[in-house]
Amino acid sequence: MAKLPQETTSIVLDLQARLLDTIDTAKAAEFTILEQFGQAEATIEALEQLQNITERLRNPYSRFCTLLLRIAEAQPVADADTLELLNRTMEQAQATIAGAQVSIRESKADLNLS
């Protein structure tokens, strides 16, 4: 197995956990909106935004799984392109999480949800 520095592995696993947590938050908000208001004209925009957020978060999560498996199977070292893609995915995931959290708060605030 090609070894990643422990710090990199920790960051990736932390990002995966944060991605899952943010997906859960978006889906919980979506569920709450549907339960409280249903799928009405006033909620469609928020529901679509939450679904888009979930999809945007799912992509880096899936990419991390694929890349970590590819790196684990590489011998004796992972190729530079894979490592570069991992670094870009880490940067993208951090930005995506931050943006998603703001969007979720805004969607909830628009409908006076806590």
The first-to-last residue Cα distance is 46 Å
Number of strands: 0
Please give the share of residues in helix.
over 70%
Radius of gyration: 17 Å
Report the principal-axis shape: elongated
Biggest sheet architecture: none
Tally of alpha and pi helices: 3
Question: Would you write up a description of this structure?
Answer:
The protein has helices at 6-37, 41-73, 80-110. It has 3 helices and no strands. The termini are far apart. Helix content is 84%, strand content 0%.
List the helices and strands and how they pair.
Elements (H helix, E strand, L loop, with lengths): L5 H32 L3 H33 L6 H31 L4
What are the main properties of this structure?
114 residues, mainly alpha
In short:
With 114 residues, this protein is mainly alpha-helical. It is built from three helices and no strands. It is elongated, with a radius of gyration of 17 Å.
